[in-house]
What we know:
5-stranded mixed sheet; 36 helices; 64% helix; repeat; HAT
Amino acid sequence: MxxxxxxxxxxxxxxxxxxxxxxxxxxxxxxRNYLIPISQQRLYFSxxxxxxxxxxxxxxxxxxxxxxxxxxxxxxxxGGMQAPVPPKSSWRWWSRWGWSWPWEGPWEEDEEEExxxxxxDENQKFDEFEGNxxxxxxxxxxxxEDKEADAVWEAIDKRMDSRRKDRRExxxxxxxxxxRASNPKxxxxxxxxxxxLYTLSTEEWDSIPEIGDYSLRNKxxxxxxxxxxxxxxxxxxxxxxxxxxxxxPKTRAAGGTETPWAQTPVTDLTAVGEGRGTVLSLKLDRLxxxxxxxxxxDPKGYLTDLKSMKITSDAEVSDINKARLLLKSVTQTNxxxxxxxxxxxxxxxxxxxxxxAQQLIKKGCEECPKSEDVWLEACRxxxxxxxxxxxxxxxxxxxxxxxxxxxxxxxxxxxxxKSRVLRKGLEHIPDSVRLWKAVVELANEExxxxxxQRAVECCPLHVELWLALARLETYENAKKVLNKAREKLxxxxxxxxxxxxxxxxxxxxxxxxxxxxxxxxxxxxxxxEIDREMWxxxxxAAERAGSVATCQAIIHNTIEVGVEExxxxxxxxxxxxxxxxxGSIETARAIYAHALTVxxxxxxxxxxxxxxxxxxxxxxxxxxxxxxxxxxxPHAEVLWLMGAKEKWLAGDVPAARAILQEAYxxxxxxxxxxxxxxxxxxENHEPERARMLLxxxxxxxxxxxxxxxxxx
Length: 712
């Protein structure tokens, strides 16, 4: 089954098999059932045009179409002006009698005169897909207004398509369900019978016969012949089964020690097997030394030989021979194709012929000296001693190959020789960042600084080299390096973040926020889009590096980018919780700190921030946060109670009492605060204080009740 989306946004369901249907047959089916001419059909699959002349006889499956795939059908819009065409039926009637239209000549003359007056022919550049617009507006200029208009229409189309999406999907789902109901699978047809199988007992299960192959084509006719058994065989069988209870005269004459020839027992197969084992043991004993009694067979070498034996079936040997012939044809017909030589060498390696593989790849190096893959394969197949010579010839043939120089350095044993090889490669490829990084990793700190100074001159557009050099320089030189990097790479945010980290590391925390703010403005002037998610990841990375001030500055300057005003609270709280799950506590704390500057009176955000400080902060930071919270939300009972409880748990009962007294003044009618004060005194063995608090609470409650009655 294949789905086709028509130009009117309807989905056509075609019950066909892509593996047995050609593109031509599909076009004929659409023309026959939906009256769309083949010449006007434009079938697309994943933005790829299928309706081309060379694809007419190709199966849909070969074009990438699978069952349940969706094709898009476009029909060109034929615009412009055309000369009126006489009806075909009348024209055929006139032409059958050899007549012509009376106005045929004047019409053509008028059309030619009209085209000459206009200076162009309207149908001269008629495009079958775009209509006559290609001829009328071929010389028109596509300006910004046209681009803006196209964008507006495209947005309208997307909006209309999204409005019809649910209805279209529901209709498509309904059609699919209807199709599946009318064409059920085999498993669905027997689903009810399968559900009834649980009622069978064990005996009934065992009585189910096994499925056998009863087809006639698999039955072989056997010719059965019946031959009568000879009498000699029957007599021999009788003698074998006969039990003799008396000795014959000849046996008695020999004293009963001689067995008559007629009664020799039948040969026992088990005895024959035991005899063979005995003979084998005798042969093995002959291999042992008659003097020392030690065996001359090397057991380790014997096992090694067994391990080295490669058991190859006839089918594998045949496949290898076929592949060998095929690759031989490839290398002979196209000797300049490097991958053919590589494949041929690897085939011989798999077949257990390393010498042949080396000879083939050597010939490949001669035929394809400019292919680095061939040289790398030759180096891999060669021994360790010969590999250096092979790679030396490779870098001589291709001195600008980074892979070959890296492989040459890898073959060296000590770091000094590796560094020498890499520096030799940098003489040929001074702009290779990979070679510079490799040689810097092998150098000490002082040499690495000198190498990076040369590296940024050769590769000024690679920010990793600039940042590595800044980390090795002193504070003043690092600032100069970062300023030069900013001039070379004005659109790179990592330079500004590194500058902020540098200032924080040297104690200039006041400059961190200014640098981040200035950097964001500079990037926006350069046309760089501020990606909020990327900057948040940079903040988490700065936290992991120990640059907390840089982390806070990044969050403060980028947390509001791309967030709608009505979504700020929900988005920021979600961001903080995600950072908390990832272990980025300072990043989450910075997000809550910024959110509290915007939403000063939101109790939920204060509680989230307090929970963060309680889990990952100190008692002092939590107390400071709660103190700040009750100044903005003095009527929030939970904040007062949380502060008093933390003081109580810390063992500071007078401080807890003081917090509750402040809560009385802010919320005098709160029963929770009165009960919390009573519990504090009672748990700390102050029953008199607890009794006085309850009495005062009852008195206050009675007074308020009387006031309400009087007011009524």
